[in-house]
Amino acid sequence: MKVGMVASHYPHAAHREEFISRVHQVAEEFRRHPGCLSADCWVSADAVISIVQWESEDAFAASLAAIQAAGLDLAYDERESRPREILQLVAS
């Protein structure tokens, strides 16, 4: 069953371009892993949003573990104006 994730980041204006770059880097890494169907970066007036789809829960878990091991900057800190919103989805 396909699974997905939508993560909304709310960077301060001074860090917006940095967050766009970070989300692109993470999306690129996700796309390298088997089972990742798509990984994209979207922006709105106040958010940088990543949308990722996997072919299964196992593919999601494996690629998430690989992302964490890759040493990419995933930290939530003072660069963001409010907490991230992360939704995990299952196809119906």
Features:
92 residues; alpha+beta; four-stranded antiparallel β-sheet; 2 helices
Mean pLDDT: 94
Q: Which structural category fits the helices and strands? A: alpha+beta
Strand order across the biggest sheet? Answer: 2-3-1-4
**Gross morphology:** globular
Oligomer: single chain
Count of helical segments? 2
3D structure, described in words:
- The protein is built from two helices and four strands, in the order βαββαβ.
- It has helices at 16-31, 57-69; strands at residues 3-11, 36-43, 48-54, 80-90.
Question: Could you give the topology of this structure?
Answer:
Elements: E1 3-11, H1 16-31, E2 36-43, E3 48-54, H2 57-69, E4 80-90
Characterize this entry briefly.
With 92 residues, the protein is an alpha+beta fold.
